[in-house]
Structures are given as structure tokens and as C-alpha cells.
């Protein structure tokens, strides 16, 4: 359930010397908590609490990039670099519990897909906001770090832009969760078939 009142703002230390402003992690944490009102978890790297303001759909980055070409822009998307990079797409809180039912309804239930949902009680590494750490977010992931491909906009009601099941009372302009899942499933399946075709044949 989305909170109607944002979390209390923590004081920022412009010099970066206090507990909340010490180094890049302190600035990243301050941006999430003060600008977006999203809860973070103590420790490094900075991690976000999932299931309160948003849930997450995770797919191979290759499938995610192909799917985004077919989808309207507007909702936040993060990528995690490194070998076998992953893409995480933010969706409305509560959507993780809808994934299996949607896949069954779309007749994807029996197909092995590298498409997973992250929901309430889980954590995700906080993507580095562009501009807070030098060179992060401008040219893609840096040394495997998670960065925003489509960042949330500070000062806006981010949650109203997240894909949702319309019947659950999502905003009229929010992207359709069913269409998003179907598009992701198609491209996850294509990526899997491509990888299987690229494997060498085994002879006995």
C-alpha cells in the first residue's frame, strides 16, 4: 500500500562529513530518502526496501532492452552491469504477487522464462543516481554497479507512473502491467531460444 505521507526528511551534510553525508553512499542514501521519500536499509552498499512504494520485475538486460523498444516511456528502469547483466523494472507495489497469475492467463505459465518478481520484504541495491558520483549513469553501468536507465524524478509522485493492473485502481495514465509482462515474456523467450541455438550440439 502506498503511503500518502512521505517519510521524514533527514538533514543533509553538504560537506559530506556527517554520518548521512560521508562519501558517495551518504549522498546516494540522502537522495533516495530526502528527494524520493523511499526507505533505505542501513549498511553499504545502499539498498532499497521493496514492497512499500514499489515492486520489481527482473529480466536479462538483453530481453529488457528489446522490450523497452516496444513499450511507452515513463516508468523507472535500472540496469545492473557485468556478465549476464540484469534489468529491473519498477512496478506498482503488490504487483509481484500478480506475476504468476498473469503469466498463466497469458498462457506463458508452462514456458521457462528468466522473469522474476521481487516484492514485499525484499531488498534491492540502490542504483546510483546520475550526477551524484562522477561518471556513473552517463554511459551505463560502471564496474558492475546498478545504475538508472530511466531514473525516477525527484519531487514527483513516482508511484503513479508505475505499471499496474488497472482493475486494482492504478492511475489512468499508468502503463498496463499485463502488457508489460507479456512483452517481457516474449523477449525473455526469444533470448532463451537464441542462447539454446548458440550452444554446440552434443554428439554421443
Structure description:
It is built from four helices and eight strands. With 204 residues, it is of the alpha+beta class. It has a domain at 55-116 and 135-197. The strands form two sheets. The protein has a five-stranded antiparallel beta sheet with strand order 6-3-5-4-8. Helix 2 (61-68) packs across helix 4.
List keywords for this structure.
five-stranded antiparallel sheet; alpha+beta; three-stranded antiparallel sheet; 25% helix; 4 helices; 8 strands; 204 residues; disordered N terminus
Order of helices and strands: HEEEHEEHEEEH
Question: What is the helix tally?
Answer: 4
**Strand-pairing-aware structural class:** alpha+beta
- Termini gap: 56 Å
What is the residue-averaged pLDDT? 80
Largest sheet: 5 strands, antiparallel
In the sheet with the most strands, the strands line up as 6-3-5-4-8
Unreliable segments of 5+ consecutive residues? 1-21, 135-141
Number of strands: 8
Rg, Cα atoms, Å: 18 Å
Strand-residue proportion: 15-25%
Shape: globular
List the helices and strands and how they pair.
Blueprint: H1 23-36, E1 40-41, E2 47-49, E3 54-60, H2 61-68, E4 77-80, E5 86-92, H3 99-105, E6 116-118, E7 123-125, E8 146-150, H4 177-198
Antiparallel strand pairs: 1-2, 2-7, 3-5, 3-6, 4-5, 4-8
Amino acid at each position: 500500500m502506498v503511503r500518502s505521507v512521505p517519510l521524514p526528511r533527514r538533514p543533509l551534510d553538504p560537506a559530506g562529513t556527517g554520518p548521512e553525508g560521508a562519501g558517495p553512499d551518504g549522498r546516494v542514501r540522502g537522495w533516495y530518502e530526502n528527494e524520493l521519500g523511499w526507505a533505505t536499509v542501513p549498511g553499504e552498499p545502499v539498498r532499497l526496501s521493496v514492497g512499500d512504494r514499489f515492486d520489481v520485475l527482473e529480466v536479462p538486460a538483453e530481453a529488457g532492452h528489446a522490450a523497452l523498444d516496444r513499450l511507452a516511456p515513463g516508468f523507472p528502469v535500472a540496469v545492473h552491469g557485468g556478465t549476464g547483466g540484469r534489468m529491473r523494472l519498477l512496478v506498482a507495489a503488490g504487483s509481484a504477487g500478480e506475476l504468476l497469475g498473469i503469466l498463466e492467463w497469458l498462457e506463458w505459465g508452462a514456458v521457462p522464462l528468466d522473469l522474476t518478481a521481487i516484492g514485499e520484504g525484499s531488498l534491492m541495491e540502490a542504483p546510483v543516481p546520475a550526477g551524484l558520483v562522477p561518471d556513473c549513469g552517463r554511459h551505463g553501468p560502471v564496474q558492475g554497479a546498478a545504475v538508472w536507465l530511466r531514473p525516477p524524478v525527484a519531487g514527483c509522485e513516482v508511484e503513479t507512473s508505475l505499471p499496474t493492473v488497472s482493475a486494482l485502481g492504478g492511475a489512468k495514465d499508468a502503463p498496463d502491467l499485463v502488457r508489460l509482462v507479456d512483452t517481457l515474456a516474449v523477449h525473455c523467450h526469444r533470448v532463451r531460444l537464441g542462447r539454446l541455438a548458440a550452444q554446440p550440439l552434443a554428439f554421443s
